[in-house]
Amino acid sequence: MEEFVVYILFSEKHNKNYVGYTSNLIERFKSHNLLATKGYTIKFRPWKVVHVEFYTTKKDALQREK
């Protein structure tokens, strides 16, 4: 069964929070901090994961993310 994660990232350097959801937190975190070459989060690197919540459905995770 697939599990979904809602997460909050924090950039100390820029004092910014970012909320997202994924089914693979490790890969998503790598993307935010290392791999991505465009998008909102690249401007505020480095990020730390400061909060994580687990959900059994994508619908519930999306609702919580918003």
What is the number of strand segments?
A: 3
Order of helices and strands: EEHEH
- Cα Rg: 12 Å
Helical run tally: 2
Strand order of the largest sheet: 2-1-3
Q: In what range is the share of β-strand residues?
A: 25-35%
Oligomeric state of this protein: single chain
Q: What is the CA-CA span between the terminal residues? A: 23 Å
Q: What is the SS-derived class?
A: alpha+beta
Percentage of residues in helical conformation: 25-40%
Question: Stretches where pLDDT falls below 50 for ≥5 residues?
Answer: none
Main beta sheet? 3 strands, antiparallel
| Gross geometry | globular
Mean pLDDT: 97
Total tally of structural domains:
1
Short description:
The protein has helices spanning 25-35, 58-65; strands spanning 4-11, 16-22, 48-55. The chain has a 3-stranded antiparallel sheet with strand order 2-1-3. With 66 residues, the protein is of the alpha+beta class.
What is the strand and helix layout of this fold?
Elements: E1 4-11, E2 16-22, H1 25-35, E3 48-55, H2 58-65
Antiparallel strand pairs: 1-2, 1-3
Structure, explained:
This protein has 66 residues and is α+β, with helices and mostly antiparallel strands. It has one domain (4-65). Helices cover 29% and strands 35% of the residues. It has 2 helices and 3 strands; from the N terminus they run E-E-H-E-H. Strands 2-1-3 form a 3-stranded antiparallel beta sheet. The relative contact order is 0.32. The mean pLDDT is 97.
List keywords for this structure.
about 70 residues, alpha+beta, three-stranded antiparallel β-sheet
